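MoxR family ATPase structure dump, as promised
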Amino acid sequence: MVEVVDHSEPNILPNVLLAEVEALGARLARVREAVGRVIFGQPAVVEQVLISILSGGHVLLVGVPGLGKTKLVETLGTVLGLDESRVQFTPDLMPADILGSEVLEEGADGRRAFRFIKGPVFCQLLMADEINRASPRTQSALLQAMQEKKVAIAGQAHPLPSPFHVLATQNPIEQEGTYPLPEAQLDRFLLEVEVTYPDEEAERAMLLATTGAAEARAVNAMSAAELVAAQALIRRIPVSAQVLDAILKLVRGARPETAGLPMIRQHLAWGPGPRAAQALMLAARARAVLDGRLAPSVEDVIALADPVLRHRMALNFAARADGIRLQDVIGALKTSLG
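structure tokens r here:
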């Protein structure tokens, strides 16, 4: 359910909270600077990934190979001080290769017992590289870990470290050898971030910085404990009634059953659930703090509508036949907010 927030005085923050938000904003500025030394030409991508992590969520990075998705995840692990692990998803990857498994061992006294060997999912930042190259069975193995932050093996639950984030990379589904992710798993990702080609100036700077004798390396700018504290602080930031109304209008307006726009009712097969509203609420707060502001605005909701909604909606056959795109539908929804 969407969390209830006190909106009695949305623009007034207590002095202690104000000081904490300002300190976090300064720390996040150092984080962005550290990431910017290594990642070139992707400011929007870096911002959206940081927003998702600050919100305590998972990220799906979508783009063709060679755009620095893997480098971005490795850089964030170093900058944020997180224990990082990487899994290369392939068609023959099995669920036990990710979660771990129990092995039968015999002790010195001859007694046999099962011992659980943890898989790579037991980390703070898991990079699921090319997640849509694995079979649906293996993809779904991450479902419980992403949502419940634990793994159940042989009837026993094993908690995952805190914080725990999955940053998955995905090739466009038009490429050969890929398996579309099921809707239930897509909904577990807070944001779907599109990684596009850098502009010419950024690509020039990248070439000069990465093909010389020395290459810039990521440096630590935050600890895991500080990140957990930042995530807790994000949830304490008040949200105005105007912003809350905009979130509800956007999400409920994207469902064919409750949509006010004829375009939505005609062209969508299904729309986002309450988890999308929760994602917008948290992400809007995180974006405000990342920009050095003390409260989110409707502009934050509009800016985050695409990465929050596009993987939680599906066009029907009529829309595809008419050449309608999801970005057209989301654009109409954003326009309706004014």
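Residues 1-12 have pLDDT under 50 and may be disordered.
lmk if u need the other ones
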